[in-house]
Design a protein that fits this description.
By secondary structure, the protein is α/β, with parallel strands linked by helices. It is about 40% helix and about 15% strand.
């Protein structure tokens, strides 16, 4: 700076320099990147700094795959729904939601889509070929079993299992290196099932000639977890038709009825493998847009493993006219290989420093951007674009508000009755917290609340202008059988700190015992 006609050099931090836009590149991409052709792009919202409209298109980025992260209530599910609706309108895109917790099924029904529920009447045969050669399908099945079980640690058991699967195909007259599988009359062959594989291994054990009987028994035991009566969702002939899944508009594959994470992961991986092969067979289409978008939400079991098909699909890029959306509350549940290879990442509200560390390390955004991300509100986000060519502008920028198809309904919990005197005097302390209606319903469904009770609670919020005091709210949840650990998790997701949560439960106990706290109104739900 000039002092008495002389220049003095002064050290400035990167953050200070970034505020002086004349000295650095603009903090957002140019309009040529942000404002794509509206007839061939999806509108997201306006940028925070220059208020420029941002239209997403796969043509500007390395591939059409998307990662989305954000805590419960940040607007993640709402954004996904908006994105799918607009993709259907702009490109006539089909969408398949692999629905881990069953949170999208109500919305899909409301929009006229189709819901298929594995574990509730629908089956998917693990040994279906999906247009593949049997040899190639066997490799996929074994890779899936390696992800979901410990079979990779036991080479002999792996060999026995692989041999039995091959024998099951041969027994049903399949040609191992052929795509088309028909009998002498030209009719399609019926695929074997895992039950056939278990039967063949059991017959081998009964012969008593195998030199390592313990290995054989363990191989049988491992597969039987997928063939038990009532849990044989992947060892019966398929009722789910692949062509219908990927060409019927909006489809929700509901996995919530399956008994555990391993079963849900098995269903998701099998579908991804079938879809990938189907797209390979059909090849690239010259028509603009995306033929299919696959949504994986909270699928940590297959989004985290480096050798899962989710990671492989992302790495294959833009080859087959379909995109995948991988979403999670916890960024560390998404493999770093996915962040490194997806064309676009949308970062909504993120709560913990360790998650910000992971995202910053994966996407390499500035400390200034990190601070901005830590202050995001509901519906706000940062966008990271992996451009195909080097660019003289930041790859990460801010969206002031995701603009959806309809207003995002929020429910509010009033905290005034549980704040200390010191907190009440502090104007920076929030008097209420909010969460999105659909995220709220999804959480309660995961905790075991029935749809009937959920509707009653929803009506109580809406009758009171979508507000309820937090103590009465907790009393209602406990009355309906939700345990305190789950209630505590729900309150934390809404942004309430541990000390306030302890105070809330204290007020609840006093209220129930008829002691201090009577001033808090009791909630009466309609019968």
């Amino acid at each position: 700076m000039p002092i008495g006609g002389k220049l003095k050099l002064t050290k400035l931090s990167n953050r200070d320099i970034s505020k002086r836009n004349l000295l650095v590149y603009p903090p957002e991409p140019p309009m040529s990147v942000l404002f794509a052709d509206p007839t061939n792009a999806i509108y997201v919202g306006r940028t925070k700094i220059f208020n420029a409209p941002f239209y997403w298109t796969y043509e500007n980025v390395a591939n059409p795959h998307i990662a989305i992260v954000g805590i419960s209530g940040s607007g993640k599910s709402y954004f996904i729904k908006t994105f799918l609706l607009r993709a259907a309108f702009v490109w006539n895109t089909n969408a398949l939601i692999i629905d881990w917790a069953g949170e999208y099924k109500d919305w899909v029904k409301q929009t006229g889509g189709k819901v298929l529920s594995l574990g509730k009447g629908s089956y998917l045969n693990l040994l279906d070929l999906g247009g593949m050669k049997p040899y190639d399908r066997i490799k996929q099945i074994m890779r899936t079993l390696e992800l979901l079980t410990d079979i990779a640690n036991y080479p002999e058991q792996r060999r026995l299992t692989e041999q039995a699967i091959e024998k099951a195909y041969l027994e049903n007259k399949f040609r191992m290196d052929a795509f088309e599988q028909k009998d002498e009359l030209g009719k399609p062959l019926t695929a074997p099932t895992l039950k056939d594989v278990v039967r063949l291994l059991t017959e081998q054990a009964q012969m008593g000639s195998y030199e390592f009987p313990a290995e054989l028994e363990n191989a049988i035991y491992r597969l039987k977890q997928f063939t038990k009566p009532g849990e044989d969702f992947f060892s019966q002939q398929s009722t789910v038709k692949l062509d219908e899944l990927i060409s019927s508009g909006l489809v929700d594959l509901d996995l919530a009825g399956l008994p555990d994470e391993a079963s849900r992961a098995l269903g998701a991986l099998t579908l991804l493998q079938f879809i990938k092969e189907k797209m390979r067979l059909e090849g690239w289409k010259t028509a603009k847009g995306l033929r299919l978008i696959i949504v994986l939400d909270e699928a940590w079991k297959i989004g985290k493993e480096e050798n899962s098909d989710a990671v492989m699909i992302v790495r294959e890029g833009r080859k087959y006219n379909f995109g995948m959306i991988i979403a999670s509350q916890n960024p560390t549940d998404i493999s770093e290989a996915i962040f490194s290879n997806v064309g676009t990442t949308f970062i909504l509200k993120v709560k913990f420093e360790k998650f910000l560390d992971y995202l910053q390390g994966s996407l390499n955004f500035s400390n200034y951007m990190r601070e901005e991300i830590s202050r995001l509100g509901v519906g706000q986000c940062a966008v990271n674009l992996a451009m195909t060519l080097p660019t003289p502008y930041p790859s990460t920028f801010l969206i002031d508000k995701i603009e959806g198809e309809e207003p995002s309904k929020e429910f509010f919990l009033d905290l005034a009755g549980v704040l200390t005197e010191k907190q009440r005097r502090d104007v920076s302390v929030a008097r209420s917290v909010s969460f999105l209606k659909e995220d709220f319903r999804r959480k309660l469904r995961q905790f075991g609340m029935s749809d009937e009770k959920m509707e009653e609670l929803t009506k109580s919020f809406e009758k009171a202008n979508r507000r309820m005091d937090v103590v009465s709210f907790v009393i209602v949840l406990e009355r309906d059988g939700i345990i305190r650990r789950n209630i505590s998790d729900l309150l934390k997701d809404a942004g309430i700190d541990d000390i306030t949560i302890i105070n809330i439960f204290g007020k609840v106990d006093l209220k129930k015992s008829g002691g201090v706290g009577r001033e808090i109104s009791q909630v009466v739900l309609e019968e």
